[in-house]
Amino acid sequence: MIEISGFVALYIFMLAAFTGYEVISKVPVILHTPLMSGSNFVHGIVLVGTMVALGHAQTPLEQAIGFIAVILAAGNAAGGYVVTERMLEMFKSSKDDKGDKA
Amino acid sequence: MSLIINLAYFVAAVLFIVGLKQMSSPTTARPGIIWAGVGMVLATVVTFAHPEISGGVNYTLIVLGIAIGGALAWWSGKKVQMTDMPQMIALYNGMGGGAAAGIGAIYLLQATPETVTTTGMAIAVIGSVIGSVAFSGSLVAYAKLQGLMKKTLNFPGQQVLNLAIIALVVILGFVMALGDGTIGGGTLLAFFILSLAFGVLMTLPIGGADMPVVISLYNALTGLAVGFKGIVLDNPALMIAGIVVGAAGSLLTQLMAKAMNRPLKNILFSQFGGGSSAAEEEIEGTMKEIQANDAGIMMAYSSKVIIVPGYGMAVAQAQHKIWELTELLQKRGVDVKFAIHPVAGRMPGHMNVLLAEAGVPYDIIYDLDEINDEFKTADVAMVIGANDVVNPVARTNPDSPIYGMPILNADEAHNVICVKRGRGSGFSGIENHLFYAENNRMLYGDGQKVAAELVASVKALG
């Protein structure tokens, strides 16, 4: 895996923070709830981290913690996706689908 | 293989950002979540080939864990009511925070003098605290909104206790980060228990009205925790997705707090409505009642009606009937608009979701800024299930706890009809001066029943 050390991490941190700020700042109020839900889904990527953590677990205790973490993370990702998708689907199906009112 | 994995993580990170970007417009929002979903599946699938994962048992546990957690969440997400969405988001968010804390726990358990650096340990410690707080705090928020926990808990010395706990957490964190990596089981356990306790204690005193802001805050915190874990694990996908969400969530939290006119520090460190009773002023006028039949006729012969829906409407499940009423009025040539306060519902935008579910097209739904000047020209403003967001006290009385909060100027309409279940005051317990206004009529009853009666009365006119 690539090594991200010291200042590179700091730069990624800074740029990602500005990106997040920019992406949200243009969102109309009507999409705030779905968007909060959507961003909730995106941090479900923690699943990947829990998989790796459980993957190199060695003791039963570590495995137990890792297993629970994977369950929780999978719940975050799956649940976050389903509720976001359900909310956004309704916006789409409203019969007057202009989309310019924002 | 490593190249493919890194490439997949890179693509996933791009898809997350593009997805979030697309979610900023109603037309592209749905593809947005789907693209983000594709990124998630991609990142998850390639991780099975990750060189750091070893051992058959671990693989089995991973697959099992994903199956269990994924299936349960998928199922619960499919069947949750739209009105219960905020607490569901809180629950899923808490799970993410818990997962981040779990990664931290494993990292700290495995730390040895040969492998650790002070920076690595410090980041793992910080991520673990934030993840734990987001986990337990979100669960409390869930319990409160779900009605499992009714009371807000206040006791003397609460702030001092919270401070003491966080001080202990910081001390333990420093001990672990500055140590050589050999951490006693007791220290680690105490560290996590205290972090979790802090999340609980911080959330307990916060009232239901402020909960959306708190959920949004925990959402940002989980993002941050995930980002820190990304640094610990050298995983750029986690880093980027986590930090983007952390920053976006922080901004969203500020926007919500601002819309509610509740500075974040007041929400977190004080209780709602403190000292409001002292500032109660005399209310002029009396409440006048109106019957549903008369209200229906009044609206049917108007040229412009503005409906102000609040969470009470959604609780009564009246939105479908309200849409039916709207369609009837539109057929009679009445110009009907919906006015949504930023904090209508339980979260900004929540009311839009509920109305969309009932079939109301979003081009007749307006934000506060867009519609506030139009109330002057409206014949009827119908307030249903909303209270504080139309209370003129927010404009006039500097002593009121809601003073300064932007409100919908429903009181400026020629006639106001307030649909209300009972005679009590609203969510915040503040008397609503609108109810006593000269041009206001109260229409008492359950939202859905009243809406049905209004529909019947308009229909009867033919």
From TrEMBL, chain B:
<feature type="transmembrane region" description="Helical">
    <location>
        <begin position="185"/>
        <end position="206"/>
    </location>
</feature>
<keyword id="KW-0997">Cell inner membrane</keyword>
<comment type="function">
    <text>The transhydrogenation between NADH and NADP is coupled to respiration and ATP hydrolysis and functions as a proton pump across the membrane.</text>
</comment>
<keyword id="KW-1133">Transmembrane helix</keyword>
<dbReference type="InterPro" id="IPR029035">
    <property type="entry name" value="DHS-like_NAD/FAD-binding_dom"/>
</dbReference>
<dbReference type="GO" id="GO:0008750">
    <property type="term" value="F:proton-translocating NAD(P)+ transhydrogenase activity"/>
</dbReference>
<keyword id="KW-0521">NADP</keyword>
<dbReference type="GO" id="GO:0005886">
    <property type="term" value="C:plasma membrane"/>
</dbReference>
<feature type="transmembrane region" description="Helical">
    <location>
        <begin position="238"/>
        <end position="257"/>
    </location>
</feature>
<feature type="transmembrane region" description="Helical">
    <location>
        <begin position="121"/>
        <end position="140"/>
    </location>
</feature>
<keyword id="KW-1278">Translocase</keyword>
<dbReference type="Pfam" id="PF02233">
    <property type="entry name" value="PNTB"/>
</dbReference>
<keyword id="KW-0812">Transmembrane</keyword>
<feature type="transmembrane region" description="Helical">
    <location>
        <begin position="160"/>
        <end position="179"/>
    </location>
</feature>
<keyword id="KW-1003">Cell membrane</keyword>
<dbReference type="InterPro" id="IPR034300">
    <property type="entry name" value="PNTB-like"/>
</dbReference>
<comment type="similarity">
    <text>Belongs to the PNT beta subunit family.</text>
</comment>
<protein>
    <recommendedName>
        <fullName>NAD(P) transhydrogenase subunit beta</fullName>
        <ecNumber>7.1.1.1</ecNumber>
    </recommendedName>
</protein>
<keyword id="KW-0472">Membrane</keyword>
<feature type="transmembrane region" description="Helical">
    <location>
        <begin position="33"/>
        <end position="50"/>
    </location>
</feature>
<comment type="subunit">
    <text>Heterodimer of an alpha and a beta chain.</text>
</comment>
<feature type="transmembrane region" description="Helical">
    <location>
        <begin position="6"/>
        <end position="21"/>
    </location>
</feature>
<feature type="domain" description="NADP transhydrogenase beta-like">
    <location>
        <begin position="6"/>
        <end position="456"/>
    </location>
</feature>
<keyword id="KW-0520">NAD</keyword>
<dbReference type="GO" id="GO:0050661">
    <property type="term" value="F:NADP binding"/>
</dbReference>
<feature type="transmembrane region" description="Helical">
    <location>
        <begin position="213"/>
        <end position="232"/>
    </location>
</feature>
<feature type="transmembrane region" description="Helical">
    <location>
        <begin position="89"/>
        <end position="109"/>
    </location>
</feature>
<feature type="transmembrane region" description="Helical">
    <location>
        <begin position="56"/>
        <end position="77"/>
    </location>
</feature>
<dbReference type="InterPro" id="IPR012136">
    <property type="entry name" value="NADH_DH_b"/>
</dbReference>
